[in-house]
Amino acid sequence: MIKQDKKVSVIIPVYNGKKYIKETLNSILQSTYQNLEVLVINDGSTDNSRQICECIRYQDSRVVIYNQENSGVVAARNYGVSKASGEYLCFCDQDDIVDPMCYAKQIEQIEQDQSDLCMCSVGRIIDGKHSVFEVSEDACYEGKDILEQLLYPLLFNGFAPPIKMGEKNRYPHIWSCMFCIDFWRAHQIQFRRYVNFEDDLLVKTQALASAKRISTIAHIGYYWRVNLNSETYAHSYIENIAQKQQRCYEDLYQSIADRVGDQKILKFFLYITYCKQYLEAIHNLTSPDIKKTWRNIHTYYDVNIYGRNFKECTMVVPYVKQGKIKPQIILYFLARKQTMLSYFAEIILDKVLLLTLHSQILTKIERRLKGIRG
After folding, report:
1. DSSP for 41-97?
2. pLDDT over 90 percentage in the chain
3. 75-99 b/e with 16+ CB inside 10 Å = b?
């Protein structure tokens, strides 16, 4: 039995989460590892989320509630970190489920390996049905293995550039991670408040690039609920997306440049990151928040895609992994500057992806479109 002398701080931003927050909190409080503080950051909820959390707090003093005006998940997470008093740090979304053994297994692996963080395997919940999403292994990585087995598969997810790296897909979510809080603070890791997308990727990249030793476990410790009403699937239009994407790229580059060192790999990082950003920019344009005309679609492409190292970066399009149907199709059209074909392909394929989330029969199509398992 693992000692329970070290505290785990679990940070949960909550905004109008009344539907699932009770189930989420109870899953954490029922953990076999009991030395917890659960920091609920109520981000200006207008439903009765706060009252639900207060009722649970009265029953279990490990729950601590902080209230702030609505500032978004990034600000809520950063605020939660500033209040954390545990030796270990975890994050949870308001509608997800933590397995009872997750924290105990992660701490055991961290202490056995003397690592800076531990990543568990991840499942997902769609319409109440559980399935596997991302499977890791019981392992410890250091040195080049961190780059080749963890960092490169994260940065180049969906692509297979001619460099040495593991075949497992790695994803940017941080809720599968347990961090040693001394490591987090020593490297001044934080969520970027100016970014309203890719905040998890920035943090996870910085952590993987900074760590001396990283543990992974095969145990499925976290279940991500696919909630089409969550921020993940909100399709709000992002103003000045190219500027934000450029700042995102620069932050990522700053995190990895010294650790990677190899200029060839850093070039691939530039090209592949930009190609992914082109895809994000097209998705952004299909938001229902703005009206589109033939002319402003072309203008948008000129500013946010064709004007950003386009010819050079699209040379990596042939390295899109087999089975990644959506990026294969859209980037094929895009590389040939077939603007309207790439735009309508995004609309059609995005609708297909959303439909498959509710169909067990169509799961195989989703796997091929997004290249995920489960």
Report:
1. EEES-SSSHHHHHHHHHHH-TTEEEEEE-S--HHHHHHHHHHH--SSEEEE--TT-E
2. 79
3. bbbbbbbeebebbbbbbbbbbbbbb
- Conformation bin of residue 248: beta by default, left when phi > 0, alpha when psi is -120 to 50: alpha
Q: How far apart are CA 85 and CA 89, in angstroms?
A: 9
Q: Rounded CA gap, 27 and 222, in Å? A: 10
Binning pLDDT at 50, 70 and 90, where does residue 91 land?
A: very high
d(CA 269, CA 275): 10
Is 18 within 8 Å of 52 (Cβ atoms)? yes
- Letter for the amino acid at 331? L
Helix axes 339-356, 294-301, angle to 10 degrees: 90
Cα within 13 Å of Cα(249), Cβ side: 21
What pairing do the DSSP bridges indicate for beta strands 129-134 and 88-91?
unpaired
Q: Furthest-apart CA pair in the chain: how many Å?
A: 66
Give CA–CA dist 137/122, Å, rounded. 11
Does 367 have pLDDT greater than 50?
no
The residue type of 225 is: R
Q: Which residues contact 8 (CB under 8 A, 6 or more apart)?
A: 33, 35, 36, 37, 86, 87, 88, 89, 90, 103, 107, 178
Q: Is the pLDDT of residue 374 over 90?
A: no
Domains contained in the chain, CATH given: 8-225 (3.90.550.10), 241-370 (no CATH)
Enter the pTM of the model. Answer: 0.90
In sequence order, which ranges of 286-374 are alpha helices (DSSP H)? 294-301, 310-313, 325-335, 339-356, 363-370
d(CA 270, CA 263): 10
Is 10 within 8 Å of 102 (Cβ atoms)?
no
Cross-strand pairs, 98: 222
* Whole-number Å distance between alpha carbons of 56 and 106: 25
